[in-house]
Amino acid sequence: MRNFIIKRIMISVVILFFVAFIVYTIIRCMPTSYIENLAMQKAQLPGGKSYGEWLEQLTAIYGLDKSIPEGFFGWLGNALRGDFGDSWQFNVPVIEKFNEVIWDSFALASISFVLELVIAIPLGILSARKQYSKTDYAVTVFALIGISLPTFFFATILKYVFSVQLGWFDLYGKVGRYYDQLDAFGQFMDIAAHYVLPIVTIVIVSIGSLMRYTRTNMLEVLNSDYIRTARAKGLSENRVVNYHAFRNTLIPIVTIIGGTLPGLFAGAMITETLFQIPGIGYTSYLAMTNGDIPFSMFFLVFQAVLTLLGTLLADILYAVVDPRVRLN
To answer: Which domains does the chain carry?
Structure first.
């Protein structure tokens, strides 16, 4: 196990290097630039320099006058020392801004992920056990609706019904207008109320694929020879399904669970934007659209690291849920 992990980490480092270089190249080629916008603003000031002069000066200050390989290795050297620079869009160190916004996204994603597992896996198993019944059809329709609904459309419907028509929740934001006047418990409940609609949106649009995936794998397992043998021995149906079948159903589901690690920190960009939740998804969107190279580079490379770790975690979990798998 130790040798396997060390080998995978070494391979991951090589992959991460090339991923970071590709990401840096793409960001440097982005048409929208914070530097260009800043130069345009300064050029409009009375008695100031021209746009071209400001652009040349700011480009030299931020190191964009260097070639892409030279600029990348300069960024890489600073990153290895833990210095990711200052965000051009937010005028604070990248790490500081990241720590400020990541936990809102993590709270949304982790709660949504737990609810997704709690709802999707039992419903998928129930649908497989009652194949071609009314329950199976109902679960299938519900899953297909979730898969088909665009996030922006479903979020807009929720806002119109529960915020505009019923007035149960605010339209957007993380806190209400009277947040500062509340005690600690009241502030917690205020934030929780603002999280309800975003969480419902994420769960509904994400639950369908996992539900169908669980159903498909459970049907395959239930038709296996060892399941028929277990039933022939007189084991109860609950024992057959919950112990023998479910353990083997987990094997392919582990792939999905391992791949969700980056999603817990990536933020739901569309959902956060629609509800104006100041999470990492919305923040990274603002950074990329304004050409904020330092923040965008850090966020995308951070996502690459999480993706590699998620893949490694999935491989290790295979050996946990399936004794036939050996890491060597």
So the answer is: 2-80 (no CATH), 94-321 (1.10.3720.10)
Report H helices in the chain. 2-28, 34-43, 51-61, 68-80, 94-129, 134-148, 151-158, 184-222, 225-232, 237-239, 246-259, 261-266, 269-275, 280-289, 293-321
CA distance 8 to 1: 11
For every residue of 262-298, DSSP letters joined together read: HHHHH--HHHHHHHT--SHHHHHHHHHHTT-HHHHHH
Q: How far is CA 178 from CA 120, 191, 243, 296, 311, in A?
A: 37, 11, 50, 34, 44
Q: 57 exposed, middle or buried (CB, 10 Å; 0-12, 13-18, 19+)?
A: middle
> 246-259 and 94-129 helices cross at what angle (nearest 10)?
160
Measured between alpha carbons, how far apart are the two ends of the chain, in Å?
7
Q: Is the pLDDT of residue 327 over 60?
A: no
Residues in a beta bridge with 86: 93
Question: Quick one: tokens of 107?
Answer: 């709270």
pLDDT, tens digit, 9 for 90 and up, residues 249-301: 777 677 777 667 676 676 677 888 888 888 888 888 888 877 788 888 888 88
Task: Give the separation between CA 319 and CA 138, rounded to whole angstroms.
Answer: 35
- Bridge partners of 93, per DSSP, are 86
Cα(84)–Cα(298) distance, rounded to whole angstroms? 7
